[in-house]
Amino acid sequence: MDESPFRFVWPVDQAGYTMEHVKLDEPRGLGAEREYDLIRRRGGPLRYYWPLDEDGLWLRFAETCKTAEGVLGFVNEFGLLTQSPERLDSILATAALIQRIAERFHSSDRIAATKLFAESGLPTLKEGIFWYAERPEVFELRLVPFRLRDALLHQTGEAITGNRRFRRCRNEGCPNWFRLGPHAESGEGRRTYTARRQFCSDRCRVASARRSRARAS
Predict the structure, then answer these.
(1) CATH code where residue 109 lies
(2) Among 16-20, 129-133, 140-144, the range of highest mean pLDDT
């Protein structure tokens, strides 16, 4: 695992997550709710990954997390947005907000998308200077999210400011989105997805081709 302080990493409980309904006899504070649902980790070993390497994760999150089942499925793959435990309604509200922004963004109304983004409770980020050992003359100022929620909103803001183009994977059943054009560097170097690309990965391309051949036979 890359331990660079300039690359955002996030944990996922490999034992998964569970949802529980909380019912309080007495609400804690004026206006507090008596009942709500909490999602918490099961306590297994943690797996770490790089959310910002998944350029279309903000779109997948918004589309997937419209129901309790969708939220739990997303969380089991990508982790909670903040910390364990976390309220279900908080995750649903963030997903609904990003979905509204995405709808305006896809309709080319970047001003409306920007106004919604400004009302979102902007992401919390830290700033640092990154350098390349193999390219000592290159220095980059980078913003690093604190939590997954911050990372998703950061991706949303970058999509608006960069007027980026995204496409959903054409493989049947795949929920992934990917960005067209050059984007984040990975372990394989800087990737570029042209406008002709239809699939998020070679695995999905091969699976779709096999499915098409099976239906034609």
Answers:
(1) 1.10.3300
(2) 16-20
